[in-house]
Design a protein that fits this description.
homotetramer; about 150 residues; alpha/beta; 7-stranded parallel beta sheet; 5 helices; 8 strands; about 35% helix; globular
Chain lengths: ~150, ~150, ~150, ~150
């Protein structure tokens, strides 16, 4: 049934390296092939790459935008006008989260997902340590395929 | 281009008459035929009827849900967890609004759309008068086809 | 106990008549005398008058602002950056709502309050009729004192 | 002027150590003595300690709550019903942020503040490293007094 599709968010910086964009593109493509709705923040960099990968495989993407305009990148776009507060809606829209690369905005999404119990896997990106310097555990995967496999097994 | 599709919201009560549901169904169907994304609050009554009409014509619908669950009615669903505050996001997601029938929730959406300059047309529903009893102008149309024509001409 | 104070919202247009402002000022003053936190949208017109009335009696006011600046009118200000979506937070912050005068923004607040079961009383302002022209019931009072008495008796 | 008071947020986990609570209490007390409105998420642990410290010095506190109830801890309380999404409103309400201790919720607030350019200082808590293991810079201070001095100098 169309409506029961899974939704997975792909998050990452708007200013991303070529390698990060290639990773996000492949993740978007794989999710679309598996009939998963690809949720992003709807802008450039990692987001645009995931949307474009999704589109290349004929998939459906949802852009949860910070502003009040609709750039026309995603299949469906919701211009929330919420600024960076829309990060929480990206997280809420998703059954699981794949983070590619690091930035403060991306970290806020990882933190909100962990706070609310949504599975998160990182491909590259930032790491977190507690007050004693011990690493705070976040799942990591090396490749787009293994990251997609990881989130769909949750 | 897929991404540049217009988005129109169909709003109305979750508890609706058969006639209101038939109207909403036809509006959803016509919008889908015109390649417009049908945005709703994602629940029952007028919303479910518009979604079902959209689906019957192979269209894409976006459900902006008040709760944290995904009922699986719409093509893409965003479980905002915002309660009735999500009404503002339904309005922001839309280039124009068609209201079918009346309720306090529906009236809040009409009022927010008028407040923010988004075109609104009502098919049936509530009317508003100012402190002197003079009607406060809201466009009304009798039929689904004329309502759809009205919003797409804005 | 300080923390257990009641919170009442005073809502109304930013462009208001002298009479509406005088009414809002008196309502703000009376609420402050009764140790009630006066919640508003934090801007001009009816809002500014209610805040000023509250301040004149040494009360505490909360401004729930649409923008990202703090105009410095209220005792405590929360610049939500949510635009008109902050209307829902004004409603949620309040145990009851007093509406003075009419506008689309004010009507959205009345509708959200009625939708979510928060007591509302109007002093002047717009009225609503259903599809058959029958009035949709909203409590009205003539004077500031009777409006304040009405909400505090809920 | 009452309305032009500065607002500083004190953020940290609801389950906190005695030492973290003592730190937050002293920060709340110092901010109140400097006539700063103390903004928190309104719940227990670090939040409750900061509120209590503020109250002990006769200050005004704002609780931006995740739920729809008003626990009665803060001078003014806004029960947003937004869940963890209210973290973004805590950040927006503040001219600067002091984080005491670490948790995913706290990290989301630090990340949003950094993302939006609001000054942040941490007393204890988590640290962040980039993909190459290099520390991502966040200001830290050892004592309540130095943290308060830091934020008020921004």
């Amino acid at each position: 049934m169309l409506g029961s599709r899974r939704h997975v968010a792909v998050v990452g910086p708007a200013e991303a390296s070529e390698r990060e964009c290639a990773t996000a593109h492949e993740i978007g493509r794989l999710l679309a092939l598996l009939d998963v709705v690809v949720v992003t923040g709807g802008l450039g960099g990692v987001m645009a790459a995931a949307i474009e990968g999704c589109r290349s495989a004929g998939g459906v993407s949802l852009g949860v935008l910070p502003g009040s305009d609709r750039p026309g990148r995603s299949s469906v776009e919701i211009p929330t006008g919420l600024g960076e507060m829309r990060n929480a809606l990206v997280v809420r829209s998703a059954d699981a989260l794949i983070a590619v690369g690091g930035s403060w905005g991306t970290l806020s999404e990882i933190a909100l997902a962990r706070r609310t119990g949504i599975p998160v896997v990182c491909v590259g990106g930032w790491s977190v340590a507690d007050a004693h310097g011990a690493p705070v555990d976040v799942a990591t995967e090396e490749s787009p395929a293994s990251a997609v496999e990881w989130v769909l097994s949750r």
